[in-house]
Design brief:
NE1680-like fold; 4 strands; about 45% strand; DUF2024; NE1680-like_sf
Length: about 80
Amino acid sequence: MKIHVYDTHVHTTTGQYIHFDVLVDDDNVNHVAQYAKRYLDSLGVSTNNIEQSRCNFCHSEMAPPEVQENIVLHGHSILRL
């Protein structure tokens, strides 16, 4: 499975820096921002607490099995960096 990697950087109002990749297939490219927000919510980071963020397409690659499984089950996979 070929996936697309979106490099995501978030700076919160409290000075926290969060760096992660959102990994998606062709069918879920339009949902990257939604997946990133959902991930931040799971960390307890509200959009009200975000000072600066960016989520940019980085590259495409072949996905390892565990990433493929997450994408099949959830539409995406997150890789915390």
